[in-house]
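Reviewers of the previous submission asked for a worked example of the structure-prediction workflow described in the proposal, so we include one complete record here. The input consisted solely of the amino acid sequence. No template or homolog information was supplied to the procedure at any stage.
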Amino acid sequence: MEITTLNPPAPIDIMSEEELDKLPFGAIRLDRNGTILSYNRAEANLTGRDPRRVIGRNFFTEVAPCTNVQAFAGRFREGVERGDMHTIFPFRFDFEMAPRDVSVTLFYSKNTDSAWVFIRATADVN
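From that input alone, the workflow returned the following structure tokens.
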């Protein structure tokens, strides 16, 4: 008898859009190419962007090009390529907005072959 191990889904993987909207921090789900699949209400409130206008667009090149640097997009690409990513780092968003310092968490889900970007304002982290 062959024994296989299953990766149980992370709680975030099975949340509905309504549940994602209740999170107190920005949550963006990306496919392995960086295309936005989910964009929650907290992130919409932080950026002033309508989720319907960003879903289906590339996060790194179309929505937040300030993230298309090694410190952010590079980490994303490396983690997706490895199929393993859970990293937290500070970042400054400054595209079409007043500069905002945040804490970013990148998490790759093998269950959904997608990556999550969690964003908290630095003031919320301390």
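The radius of gyration is 15 Å. We consider this example representative of the routine output the project will generate in years two and three.
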